[in-house]
Amino acid sequence: MGVLLHQSVQLRAGTHSEKTAFRCRERYIDYSELHAQSIALSQTLIRLGLEPSGRVGIFMEKDLETPVSVYGILAAGGVYVPIDPRSGIERLEYIIRDCEIDILISSESKISILKELEERKSASLRKVIGLRENAFKTIASIPWIQALNKGDKSQSELREIQEDDLAYIIYTSGSTGVPKGMMHTHRSGLSYAQYATDLYDVDDSDIFASHAPIHFDISKFDLFGAPLCGATSVLIPEEELAFPAGLPDLIEREKITLWYSVPLALIQISSTGAIANADLSSLRWVLFAGEAFPPNHLASLMEQLPTPRYSNIYGPAETNQCTFYHIPWKDFDAREPLPLGEVWQGASYKVIGDDEQEVEAGQIGELIIHSTTTMKGYWKRPDLDANAFYVDASGRRFYRTGDSVSIDNQGLLQFHGRRDRQIKLRGYRIELDEIEATINAHNDIELCAVVLSQRNPEEKSINAYLVPKAQSNYSKESLKKSILKKLPHYSVPDQFVVLDSLPETSTGKIDRTQLLQIDCLQK
Predict the structure, then answer these.
(1) Of 3, 85, 325, 518, which is most buried with the most CB atoms under 10 A?
(2) Do residues 449 and 436 lie in contact, with contact meaning Cβ atoms separated by under 8 Å?
(3) What is the separation, in whole angstroms, between the first and last Cα of the chain?
(4) β-bridge partners, 286
(5) 202-208-213-214 Cα dihedral, nearest 10 degrees
(6) pLDDT in tens, 122-164
(7) What mean pLDDT, rounded, does the chain reach?
(8) Is residue 312 a contact partner of residue 325, using CB atoms and an 8 Å limit?
(9) CA–CA separation, 291 and 423 (whole Å)
(10) Cβ proximity of 434 and 337 under 8 Å
(11) What is the pLDDT of residues 288-336, one digit of tens each?
């Protein structure tokens, strides 16, 4: 096995040439063609002037052109930068300018926003692949079929690429609202794919459900993991993701064996009742990550779908993944929050207190991780790097997760919330995640999110946004009484806002920033 991410496709083109690599809608691409197209694209990128470690943006809805773009950029020695296809003009412009992107791979559906970007004349963009010729006035456009014209195959093979060279940069929102780019190398990406496929016993008979968009870190499981093992990945298009009730039919139709998504997607699937009408016997493992899965919702899903194994996965995007917890059927207690579990192979950890020293078992501290899957650092942000890493006495570098954990008497890591989700209000220290978990466990609540609203320095409030269960007997008074049985009086939310559904981010998590905007609109 090679040490570079795109070498997996090269290898599978030899061992699994006619095996379907990726499938989307009614189209598919086998490993032989994926390799051929990615090499052709890599040569086009080099002819267009892509330098080693040059950044190429990918701004399109997920389709078969997506893996070709990713592996073509990597084969050319470039760095791919996935951009949320739902991005507004401001975020798109910022990422292109910040990452100094000269070449973008996109599609005709994005021509309107790209023309708006051209009119601003403030970004570095000069070439777009995937649009018709002469689509712009000042930006060169190269149709997809032209970009895949075969050139001299040796041209891309002459590029020297090292495992510690950058492979991709993922942008996420920073605490100040300014996006920050996480730099991952071939080593960190490939290490993640190798550890994950080993942990979940992946082989070439598996069929991945590619649920996450490629600008979300968990997409690397199917994008890199499937080719590593010669498996098949089914890219789920946006129109199917918009209707969770139809996803069980997709799992049955495609004979999906591995599912990986945020909990909210699984809650939506479970709540539709559609699982009962589908044959999901092919599904052998359900993985979830990104935020806490309310145990009562997980119990409901497991009752409806008892055959597969279930695993809680944890890891900031900066580390890809670092812990796992395989949920035991007989010992699963829906009244208790799920543990993060144990750190996987290739990683080690410490739990440190405010004094930077390790705490004793049972005490709460910050989780820090040392792993080969960890990012190189933040793009052009040495100020963030200085605060993101901890170096121990032996010189090992640990990523500071910002999450509060403890080690229980079984040696498992227990999650106690984000350190930045601990607030001080009216003289009390309050854990917003603890309030959220308590409300989510209530029998009348389908889903809940808790945020701190601060309209000015003197006026703060804890707001709970609720989606009651259908035909429930929800009342604010009964919910308050239930909360007071488990939490102190100062943790009871000041406001309860009932919604039909909770807003989502483009990665499928609960969008707490948008909830605050709803609060502002109601005032």
Answers:
(1) 85
(2) yes
(3) 59
(4) 259, 310
(5) 50
(6) 778 999 999 999 999 999 999 999 999 865 554 445 578 999 9
(7) 91
(8) yes
(9) 19
(10) no
(11) 998 889 898 999 999 999 999 999 999 999 999 999 999 998 778 888 8
* Cβ pair 160, 357 in contact under 8 A: no
What single string gives the DSSP state of each residue in 207-243? EEEE-S-TTSGGGHHHHHHHHHHT-EEEE--HHHHT-
Q: CA 407, CA 415: separation in Å to the nearest integer? A: 9
Residue whose token pair is 């052009």: 380
Return the SS3 of 110: helix
Six-digit token string for 486: 């488990």
DSSP labels, 390-418:
EE-TT--EEEEEEEEEEE-TTS-EEEEEE
Structure tokens at 52: 């080693």
81-89: average pLDDT: 91
> What is the number of other CB atoms lying within 10 angstroms of the CB of residue 399?
22
Q: How far is CA 68 from CA 173, 290, 361, 426, in A?
A: 27, 26, 47, 54
Q: With the C-alpha atoms ordered 92, 217, 374, 46, is the resulting torsion angle positive or negative?
A: negative
Task: Name the token pair of 214.
Answer: 């490629």
Q: Are 61 and 109 in contact (CB under 8 A)?
A: yes
**What tokens were used for 114?**
């790209």
